[in-house]
Amino acid sequence: MAGTLSTQELAQLRADAEDYLPDTCTLQTVTRTKDAQGYWAEAWADTYTNVPCRLAPQRMARAEGIEGDKLAAVTGWVLTLHHDQAVDETMRVVHDGETYEISQLEDTHSNRTAKRVQLRRVD
Question: Strand (E) positions, the chain?
Fold first, then answer.
């Protein structure tokens, strides 16, 4: 089949992709418990630490919001991780002291050399 990568070629591409993960981040998972009044409380735990990554700003097409008194484009971020890093949309990411929520996980394509995660900053 044309365009199919061998196992060795895919392994080499994945190894090459690791060279482009210059930073580290922490992936957190949440635990929810009810307090005495019946309200939910969240506690975030560092589940994966020192995870190799790359964080890049991304202008989201057609996304707009109000900033001050003006309509402005909303900026999101793209986090790139190792191809087999465990991550899901219930987690949070801490990178360089900033915390981000995962808005979308892109991991459904074949011959994946990296995982890409769409983020929005938690204020």
Answer: 23-34, 40-67, 70-82, 92-95, 98-106, 114-121
What whole-number distance in Å separates Cα of residue 118 and Cα of residue 39?
A: 30
DSSP 30: E
Tens place of pLDDT per residue across the chain (123 aa): 456 788 888 777 777 777 789 999 999 999 999 888 888 889 999 999 999 999 999 865 445 555 556 665 657 899 999 988 999 999 999 999 999 999 999 866 667 788 999 999 987
CB distance 46 to 26 below 8 Å: yes
Residue type, 3: G
Q: Domain coordinates of the chain in residue numbers?
A: 7-121
Identify the bridge partners of residue 92 per DSSP, sorted by sequence position: 28, 101
CB atoms within 10 A of CB 90: 10
Task: Tell me the fold of 7-121.
Answer: Thrombin, subunit H (2.40.10)
